[in-house]
Every structure is written in structure tokens, then in C-alpha cells.
Design goal:
Aspartate Aminotransferase, domain 2, globular, 13 strands, binds pyridoxal-5'-phosphate, alpha/beta, Aspartate Aminotransferase, domain 1, seven-stranded mixed β-sheet
């Protein structure tokens, strides 16, 4: 295939392989055909396998939409009447979950913690003790806005000691950082095709406990289209989504998963770590400072502080890199002026080395002092 390969250093969507891209050119297909039902069925089972669940107790329920659709679905579908959800918030994505609670008028408690450090699991004990009506606890595994990785296993243990259900947004860590839905004490994992499995945006999955979905059947119904039980039920009865699935995106996701298993969980993780390491080293060579302390970061996203140089202009740096096939993410982190470099996609150290050559050229051509100053 002769499609330009861009290196996406933004934290999702990610660089995909040509073999994943090629799936978008599959023959037209009606989603009711058994051939397609078989593909989606296998994809759902494979997603449960990536999470190390068994497919008797765990299911993957797919939705057509970007990753946020999962957050919407999980929050509106899993809260019984008269009960509360606790959002353990240490970043932009859990803040989005708080917004969703507000939109649905859900009873929620927000435990807002330091946005520059991982969650201290002990913090949630007191809230759970004081509020026995919390039946649902929600947090984010990898806070993509900062690069912080939370210790979901320890948090989940406390959640389960309080007999609550634990929902984890693992959108930017699933299929990247090894996760085990059982050992990590998670009931529902949220993930999306454009990140860990390096496929196309527009397809998302809630992976979780079948018994809890069954139990949620009679919970208040707050959405028609974005409803976990409804979608699950259609998969059970027809092997299919409630309404038309994004057929080609399903093919691409299936290919992404195939390539995930071909690379292997450990080798993939090693690659992510070495790409991230190369990012840290390249930044150091050019004098850049990072926003989050190294020991508080996961291996997925680095937040880089804007240097203090009269010629620094993020947009110009971005445009210089963009024209050469490298995409940076401009959005500042929690009001701090920073950009982000992710290691999510089908990229390796050679791509990062090439990127830093281009970044250095960008700095020199804009007459920004190298190493950069603060
Ligand atoms: C990417 C991401 C999402 C989903 O964002 P969309 O813009 O809807 O794709 C949700 N949570 C986390 C942690 C993410 O990284």
C-alpha cells in the first residue's frame, strides 16, 4: 500500500500498520451476514482474552463511538436507584466522568486528588466508610492528560472490601500495559480501538462481568442508545450490536488484535517501554523539562514543559514537525503550558530518533536556543 506513514506522538489515535489500514478497503458487507457476526464474535472474545478474563464470566460489549461513549455507558447504566457513584479523580479524564454524572443528574461524590501524582489508594477508604450508599467506584488507569499511571489493583481491593463495583477507564493503557481484570480487582474495563490495539477511532468496548450486567437490567434507564444492558442483550440474542455497527472499523480492530497477539503482551510492553525511554532521552538531550516527576509517570505519555525562550512558539514547532510527518499534541495539561509525547501506536525507537532530528531542526530553524532554556 502506498499510504503516507505519519508518526502520531499525540496520545491517540495512534499510528496504525498498513495491514490494519487495508481492512478499511474490505468488500462491502451487511452486518447481519454470518461471516460478519463471526468476526465480531471473535473480536469480543479476543478482547476479553487480552484482559485475561474467561469468556464465561466476562464479556466485551462493543459500541460505535469514541472512547468517551464507554464512560457515558458505564456511568449511566451501572448505578442503581438511590445509590451513589464515587469518582476518584486525579486528572482530565476522571474530570470528564464527573461531567457525565452532572449531565445525567447522577448522585455522585468526587474525590479530587493531586493531578500530578498517582492516587493514594488509602484516600478512598474513608469516603467509602462514610458513604455506605456508594455502590459504584470509577477511576482512570492511565491519565492520558498527564501520563500518570494509577495503582488500580490496590484501589480495586479496597473497592471490593466495600462490596462496590469497580469501573476503570483503561482507554489509553489496555493492550499496552499488561492488565488482568481478575487480579487487578476490576469489574469493568473501558477501552477503545484507536489506542492500545492501534486500529481506527470510532469503536469502543466495555469489558466486564456478565453477572453485573445482568443485574443492571432493572436499574434506571437513562439512555436508549448508550445503554450497557440493551447492547449486551442484543449481542446475546443476535451476536450483534443493537444498531448498525461500523463494519470496516470492526475489521480493522480485528486485525489490530491479531497483530497484538502476534507481537505478544510482553514484547509489546517492552517496545512501549523502549519507545518511552527513547522519548525521555531525546528530551533530555535537547534540554527539555518534564511536567510530571519521572517516578509518577507510566511508560505511555510524557508531558513536556514549554521552554522559556522568546522564540518558542508551539504552533510553529508543531507545523514544522507536521510537515515532516510527526504529529505533536498541543493541548496544555491542567492549565500548565506543556505538550505531550505518546508511545501508543505501531512505532519503534527508530521513529523516535527520526523525530528528535526533526525537532532539533525545528528549534534551530526558529532560532530557539539548544539545549532549550527555562
Ligand atoms: C482517549 C481517552 C478516552 C476517550 O477519548 P475520546 O476523545 O472519546 O476518544 C477516554 N479516557 C482516556 C483515559 C483516554 O485516554
Amino acid at each position: 500500500m502506498n499510504i503516507k506513514r505519519n508518526i502520531l506522538l499525540n496520545p491517540g489515535p495512534a499510528t496504525t500498520t498498513d495491514t490494519v489500514k487495508a481492512q478499511l478497503m474490505a468488500p462491502d458487507m451487511c452486518h447481519r451476514e454470518q461471516d460478519f457476526v463471526d468476526v465480531i464474535e471473535k473480536l469480543r472474545k479476543d478482547l476479553v482474552k487480552i484482559a485475561h478474563g474467561n469468556d464465561k464470566d466476562y464479556v466485551a460489549v462493543l459500541f460505535s463511538g469514541s472512547g468517551t461513549i464507554n464512560m457515558d455507558v458505564a456511568l449511566n447504566s451501572l448505578l442503581p436507584d438511590g445509590k451513589k457513584v464515587l469518582i476518584v479523580n486525579n486528572g482530565a479524564y476522571s474530570s470528564r466522568a464527573v461531567d457525565i454524572c452532572k449531565y445525567y443528574g447522577l448522585s455522585y461524590i468526587e474525590l479530587k486528588l493531586d493531578f500530578t501524582a498517582p492516587i493514594e489508594p488509602g484516600n478512598i477508604k474513608e469516603v467509602l466508610n462514610d458513604n455506605p450508599d456508594i455502590t459504584l467506584v470509577y477511576t482512570t488507569h492511565h491519565e492520558t492528560g498527564s501520563g500518570i499511571l494509577n495503582d488500580i489493583r490496590s484501589i480495586g481491593k479496597i473497592v471490593h472490601e466495600h462490596q462496590a463495583v469497580f469501573v476503570v477507564d483503561a482507554t489509553s493503557s489496555f493492550a499496552l500495559v499488561p492488565l488482568d481484570i481478575v487480579k487487578d480487582n476490576v469489574d469493568f474495563l473501558l477501552a477503545s480501538a484507536q489506542k492500545g490495539i492501534a486500529a481506527m477511532p470510532g469503536l469502543s468496548f466495555v469489558i466486564g462481568r456478565r453477572d453485573l450486567i445482568e443485574l443492571s437490567k432493572d436499574y434506571p434507564k437513562r439512555s436508549y442508545y448508550c445503554h450497557l444492558y440493551r447492547q449486551y442483550h442484543h449481542f446475546e440474542v443476535d451476536g450483534e450490536m443493537q444498531f448498525t455497527p461500523p463494519v470496516q472499523l470492526v475489521y480493522a480492530a480485528a486485525q489490530g488484535v491479531k497483530e497484538y497477539f502476534a507481537e505478544g503482551e510482553n514484547d509489546k510492553y517492552k517496545r512501549i517501554v523502549r519507545v518511552n525511554q527513547a522519548i525521555h532521552e531525546g528530551l533530555k538531550r535537547l534540554g527539555f523539562k518534564e511536567y510530571i516527576k519521572r517516578e509518577n509517570q507510566g511508560p505511555l505519555v510524557v508531558s513536556v514543559l514549554y521552554p522559556n525562550d522568546i522564540n518558542w512558539d508551539f504552533k510553529k514547532v508543531h507545523d514544522f514537525c507536521y510537515e515532516r510527518g510527526f504529529i505533536l499534541f498541543p493541548r496544555p495539561v491542567g492549565g500548565v503550558l506543556a505538550f505531550r509525547l505518546g508511545s501508543l501506536g505501531a512505532i519503534d525507537v527508530g521513529d523516535i530518533d527520526n523525530f528528535f532530528k526533526v525537532l532539533k531542526d525545528a528549534l534551530l530553524s526558529l532560532k530557539i536556543e539548544v539545549p532549550v532554556r527555562y
